[in-house]
Design a protein that fits this description.
By secondary structure, the chain is an alpha+beta fold. It has two helices and three strands.
Length: about 60
């Protein structure tokens, strides 16, 4: 039986959201599309082959 989302803890809600996001990222990469992420260096696109393209780097060209 499904739980009422209003009764879930913050951690349970975050776990559900995280799993859903990871599944969607896999679907986008399987379709050949990049996904957008961020780290300490900045915002980047992660391509299905694993390479990162930082958006600031693209603007400098």
């Amino acid at each position: 039986m499904d739980k009422d989302i209003r009764k879930l803890t913050k951690e349970e809600k975050e776990a559900i959201f995280c799993k859903a996001v990871q599944e969607e990222i896999k679907k986008h990469h399987a379709a050949g599309r990049p996904t957008t992420h961020a780290d300490k260096r900045g915002i980047y696109r992660l391509y299905p082959d694993g390479h990162k393209e930082y958006l600031d780097d693209r603007l400098d060209r």
